[in-house]
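User: I'm putting together a teaching handout on how multi-component assemblies are represented. Below are the sequence lines for each component of a complex, exactly as they appear in our records. Could you produce the 3D structure of the whole assembly as structure tokens, so the students can see both representations side by side? Please keep the chain order the same as the input.
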Amino acid sequence: MKALKNYLDKIKPNFEEGGKLHWLYSTYDAFETFLFVPNTTSKTGVHIHDARDSKRTMIIVILALVPALLVGMYNVGMQHYMAIGQEVSLLTTFVYGLIAMLPLIVVSYVVGLGIEFAMAQVKKEEVAEGFLVSGMLIPMIVPIDTPLWMVAVATAFSVIFAKEVFGGTGYNIFNVALIARAFLFFSYPTKMSGDQVWVRTAETFGMGQGTVIDGYSGATPLGQIATTDAGSFGEFTFHGITGNPLSISDMFFGFIPGSVGEVSTFAILLGALILIATGVGSWKTMLSVFIGGAVGVLLVNSFAQNAMMEMPFYYHFLLGGFAFGAVFMATDPVTSARTEKGKWIFGFLIGLVAVAIRVFNPGYPEGMMLAILLINAFAPLIDFYVIDANIKRRAKRATASLKG
Amino acid sequence: MANRIKIKKGLRIPLLGECEKTLRGTVTSEVVRICPEDFQGITPKLAVKAGDTVKAGSPLFFEKNYPGMLFASPVSGVVTTIERGEKRRILYIEVKADATTDYLDYGIKKPATLPTEEVKQSLLDAGIWFLIRQRPYDVVASPDKAPRDIFVTGFDTSPLAPSYDFILQGQEADLQTGFDALSKLTSGKVYLSISPESSCKGLREAKNVVLTEFDGPHPAGNVGVQINHLNPVNRGEVVWTLTALDVAIIGRLFNKGIVDLTRTVALTGSEVKQTGYWKMAIGTQLKELFQNNVTEGISLRYISGNPLTGRKIDADDVLRATHSQVAVIPEGDDVHEAFGWASLSPRRYSAGCTYPTLKKAYRMDARLLGGPRAIIVSNEYDRVFPMDIYPEQLVKAIIAFNIDKMEALGIYEVAPEDFALCEFVDTSKLELQHIVRTGLDMLRKEME
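Assistant: Of course. Below is the structure of the complete assembly, with chains in the same order as your input.
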């Protein structure tokens, strides 16, 4: 470690003002601070600082994403081998998922971080860590079969137009990962929905060759219920890709077709535990999303006309991106409401709108993405009214004191 | 029985180097230095020149906009140097101290029997008016405008803070005289806030005050928090604030007829070998205190004041005018910690739960432990800010210098010290106290 530090110190002059590589200073700084805690000491104000910084915060979120990512990878392999009718070992299943997923992650990080580094350089600022999380979220919420170039284009679009034009991490209005997802959804709908994209049936880097078995259908459970002819939920059954009926536990543990990160509610809840225990994610936002969702579903249930409207609320929570959105997207502090009261309202509205979109929208069975983006736009307004109450109270007090 | 107010938000930072409750002696130095920058919000005009002889209590300088407001010399002796910095700003006035302090006699008075004007004039003439600060703007109080109320904090909750109970032992008479004087200065009330654990008779049994107990972690002892819970400052109102230690100094003036700017100072911090209390006049050089009494071989940070709001000083610097505490902590610029973001080291302390809290007390250095960022994490400031104010939004209004917003969000109620804990926990490592100070100064310029 010491040799590395000496080497960094040796090459540092090249990157400083006047050095040959000064145009790469932000990049150098990003790597240096990644390797070593900066030893700058406070100049004004407090003399001691909390050990938590932006890097630590983002790392905790990534850590919280890991369970969902691992289970998701395993599920990619499992769905694949089920589709081609082969029985393989646990390890093979996982490795298939891993190599199917890795290119998406690499592309997302390379493109996004590339832009971030370049922008930081132009603005002569330090590289912000926000994209470390966004870059992991993007591959986790797109179908596994999304072409890599699409991921690249969508990532570039969202980093530039959803984040950097607003000023970078901390200033954006909309969740960066969801903008990438929305961009893909509206630009390339055929690759983002339907029953062909959620399960990778083709081989990956020569692994898992085989032909798809008869009776295969790659529709997601939400897709199935959205397009079903069944008149009521009682007549309807969810089925897996080989036609097998799906149990609640399949849905809970994540052995269903869907986006990599979103399938396993169990793993997502593990992540939620990490976020809540470390205080990085707001439990208020998470809980209120679920409350909003439950209230929405109970309302819809009361005048149900079809199977989708009759579906009980726990199915809503287990399927699609509901749990993932509640735990990892709605809690993004930058795009969420920033006041504590505001968070309750913010989360509640997301849950409510997500259910409304799911149930009443004929074309697209998933509502979480659009619900969060919509309520992101309202977050400043929610905060405005929460803070305005405080302002009014102060103004009233001042008037009362003048009279007294 | 005093009213008790419970403060839930806040944070007790488990810092190593708590002060041992022992009075170890008196520190004197050959020269004392008074730095006008310690008196927030004033423009100093010299009342002496190099070579002049002064007594303890005779003026060294006065406030440009209020020539009657004098600033006393803490010792008697000869003015040796007047050091100026950029734009001829006075950095410090150095007085070579006599072996025995010769006090200027102001006459023993009983403030309870004096008219308001005379109490005020006594403080101004004696050069200790600076002990009184005002909200809004957290500056030395302007004598022109009578305060709605006066708030006195009787305890300090900041990390490693000195015990007021210990310092104020035996000063009961001075305290009461001080409170009598203060009650003359306002037509409103004099509020005294104390810790529920306080056993100091001078505070608990004080008369002419409204006594309230504040129970909770730091910043329960901050006068700003107490004002916010007792009777908040509204637009157009002025309140004055003091610490009980300063009240005792005011009492001394009336009881003994002299300006005795001697403070009992707590020497604290993880790098101090022998902590404890020392008596010394303000402006006394601290060399003697640090000699052979601090860790050697690493770079150190010396602080006059507490580690949250204090001022960085050099090892041969002096005790600043408003402080009763000195702290020594590691500077940390010689530490290169690898992969801090992944660290599970028990040496790192975080108020949040992103690091395991394994120890009772931590040795913390002066590093920022991160780089400056935009405000990202929400609810971070609120958790350590027990006032009916939205700190994050107020800080943003200050950065944008939106006067209407600042007023609406409560800028008149706050002082930089109220944001010290926010600055400590801030993931984005912003200089919040500096931002608030700048905002208050600009606002004051704009308004007055």
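A couple of points students might notice: Chain A touches chain B through 60 residues (CB under 8 Å). The first helix of chain A runs from residue 2 to 15.
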